[in-house]
Amino acid sequence: MSSLKLSGVRKSYGAVEVIKGVDLDIESKEFVVFVGPSGCGKSTLLRMIAGLEEITAGELDIGGKRMNGVDPSKRGIAMVFQSYALYPHMTVRENMGFALRFAKVPKEQIERQVLEAARILALDPLLDRFPKELSGGQRQRVAIGRAIVRQPEVFLFDEPLSNLDAELRVHMRIEIARLHKELQATIIYVTHDQVEAMTLADKIVVLRDGVIEQVGKPLELYDNPANQFVAGFIGSPKMNFLPARIVQKDAGTAVIELVHHEGVRLSLPLAGGAVGDLVTLGIRPEHFGLPGEGAADMTLEVDVAEHLGSTSYVYARAAGEPIIIEREESRDQGDQERITVSVDPSRTYLFDQAGQRIR
Amino acid sequence: MTWAVFRRALVYVLLSIAAFVSVFPFFWMIIGATNTSADIIRGKTSIGGALLTNAATFFTQVDAPRIFFNSAFIAIVGTVLTLIISSLAGYGFEMFRSRFRERIFALLLLLLSIPFAAMMVPLFVMFSQAKLVNTYVAVIAPTVASIFIIFYFRQATKAFPRELRDAARIDGLSEWQIFLYVYLPVMRSTYAAATIIVFMANWNNYLWPLIVLQTADNKTITLILSALTSAYTPDYGMLLFGTVLATLPTLVIFFVLQRRFVEGMLGAVK
Amino acid sequence: MNRIVSRHNRLLGVALAGISLVSVAAASAGEISVWVWDKAFNGDTMREAGEIYTKDHPDTTFNVDDTASQDDIRAKLQTQLLAGSTEGLPDIVLIQDDVAQKYLQSFPGAFEPLSDSVDMSVFAPYKVAAATFDGKSYSIPFDSGVTGLFYRSDYLEEAGFTPEDLENITWDRLIEIGQTIKEKTGHQLLDLDLNDTGLIRMMMQSAGEWYFNEDGSLNITDNAALKKALETYAKFYQADLVKPVSGWAEYTGAFTSGEVAMVPVGVWITATIKANADQSGKWGVAPIPRMDLEGSVNASNQGGSSWYLLSSSDNKEEAIDFFKTVWAGNEDFYQDILIKRGAVGSLLSAREGEAYKATDEFFGGQPVWQNFSTWLGQIPSVDYGTFTAEVDAAVASQLPGIIQGGDIDAALQAVSDQAQQQMQ
């Protein structure tokens, strides 16, 4: 299995630049997830690695070899598409063996490799069926099987689970995770679903507008977002962002006050900044405490409460600002008109007006 | 009778009329082939006993094997060539980007509007200078790049999943191989529909073969039938017999391919 | 896997097409090719003429091609002469008289001036005139379209008339007779196709007029004969004596089935009428009526064609000799084709022959051929001009209005305008 390296990679369509200088190192056997909102360029980046799109500038190395301009079939990659891209006029067996046929691999070997991949994915009973006779999940597995047969250096997945229903998605996610372990494969996986990213990735690459916002392990991104965008993207439900102001500043600490909740003051470690600076305070819904537990209390008006059984989401409002609160075991809370929560400063994040994290 | 029932009945009546109008010419043709010319002029609509006589007259007057061979050769070869060239063109227009693509395509569509009669004379001069008058080549050549079929295939290719091509490229296929092994099998119903259309057009082609074919032994059945109709005393029975024969190939092709044809019209490409 | 087509198939196809008869229709030395459009009538007649010649000249054979309709032949001639390419054109081609001038005037040099080698005085003058351009004559006249009024003698009798009542009459008189026939027998007099201006041209030529003046300019609005013809035509409809038909099959069907009583038409309809053997004895032929106009006679022409020799021919000498020997010299030949096919040739001396003097049982024992021969000599000559077809179309478009009682002068003006425009 190979490593991958992107250096200063750019992509333009005519005058429009969609990938604006990407540097990335991927280790061998790593499961890397490209994640980001629609239009951020993650699929484009994937297709550039695959060789389906040209690299306008920059270098791509796979396994230490320069791959710019190399034919897709010679890069040692295999791709699984969102819509599976199975050849409708061929059986599963033929689909999986297709590439090897053209590589002039002897028939017995093709058969062997196909059977091996089929075994891994439990596709044996389906080998002689046609794609239109299979369910969505089965088709996806065939697509993965086709990739496996090619014995690539790097697997590329382009939003493979987007076309499946929720339950199937969970199931396939686990399958893919298992495959990663069994095959010891280098995988690059593109998705817009941050749950998939969090659960599958060794390393997450967050992209926005053709630029990498942050790269890191999933929990790193959760615990330590580099900017407001990443903080809001990772974690579900989204982090709450409340405008605040520095009211007191000593060396190393600052006291900030929420703009819309005078009275809510928190003391936080902060290196720079001055009194009067506007900042943004970030608090995850799951980090609100019960009244009295934290440094300050806030009382909010409840709009809607959703009860999922063990967890409840309270959609509240304070001075016109929406806030989401996550609570365990709190079914009765929703029936009240108001809710009081506490804020623990050690579980908050500060961002400047440009969205960058400040500490 | 309720309104719903009445409406149903009305629909059936209308459809029956439409069906009748469509089928009647074939019915008339077949009946006529079994009657004598005099009976036909009188408007007889029942089966007569003159089928064998008409057949005999037809085969004596017309060198049927040769004439049908001409038509068949021109139609079959013409259809195969047209399908190859025009489908490739349609595929190419849709699949490959180029700065001039739309402009060239617009030009082609513009050429569609030129009436054939305007091109007839220059075409004839061309083939005359190439010493190809009265040959199969001359009849077939102007038809192989059918702009209509190019357009048809380009439209159909829009429904062809792009990702199949991506997957094939990753699987190591060259562009030609993608066309042959992925595109062709998937677009079977489009080809079926196109075959029917092109074959019929070639088989029934009248004006250009008229101009460029000179000797009786090279003419197609459409020309021969036309000449027979304009005799001073046409033998309608024999004529209709010949027409039945002339219609058969297209009917056969249609029935053979019709399942695919319907699929192609519905655009079912998965 | 479907390997429907591959590059190889394409090459194979081209090779096949190439191997396939790259047969250019080059007449082998001594083979004269002829284009005609009707097998039974002009095709077989030419074949017979060819056989007569080949017997004495075994080196010369004939290839008569009848696999194209007259429209087809016109289209091909027009296209090729326009293209300036004579590849594949025959040696001899049959052209109908009323369109011949168009070819002679548009493509000077395309045809051989036969009057240089053949004595044209042996043929009916009006036929020779139709093929004369710039002082030379280019055709060997073939069948005459001399017209006669074919009538059902049984209906005539039933209505209380005799054949003599039809001799030397005017169209107006015929209308009266027709009304009586309709009363007494219930049959319409004529069948007419509004797309076909044949009857009108027939009437016009009987007065020695045509659509054009000698210099080629349009002769429409001041054309008394044309005006009279249109008036007469309208009168038939207004007297309700017409069965309307459309197309050749309906036209012939109307009189062969006995629906209408009479048909004024060229002699070449004989074969069609005689094809109904069970009507033998029930038909007769009278001279066509004349118009109530000075200069109009009881004779006219409809159709008729002639043989033309293309200048591109490789066998000109043989062809000319053939024409001289058979068509301009062999009277027995003309008797034979009259008997066999009802073809009335244009060789004046042939009229003295046996067949022409014979009576015909089918037509109640009348000496029809003698009659036709006489009328042949009376047909007024006219110059058909280059644009007959265009003016015809203009006239045909006015007919529906005229038969409803529309103003004839206005119609003439419209015809003139439309024709003028077409002639640009």
* pLDDT < 50 runs, ≥5 residues of chain B: none
Strand arrangement within the widest β-sheet of chain C reads 2-1-3-12-6
Classify the helix fraction of chain C into a percent range.
Answer: 40-55%
Calculate the terminal CA-CA distance of chain C, rounded to whole Å. 62 Å
CATH topology of the domain at 64-219 and 247-266 in chain B: MetI-like fold
- CATH C-level category of the domain at 64-219 and 247-266 in chain B: Mainly Alpha
How many helices of chain B in DSSP terms?
Answer: 14
Q: How would you characterize the largest beta sheet of chain B?
A: none
Class of secondary structure makeup of chain C: alpha/beta
- Total strands of chain C: the figure is 12
Average pLDDT of chain C, rounded to a whole number, is 86
Family (chain B): Belongs to the binding-protein-dependent transport system permease family.
Transmembrane segments (chain B): 9-31, 67-93, 105-127, 133-153, 178-201, 236-257
Keywords (chain B): Cell membrane, Membrane, Transmembrane, Transmembrane helix, Transport
Domain ABC transmembrane type-1 (chain B): 68-257
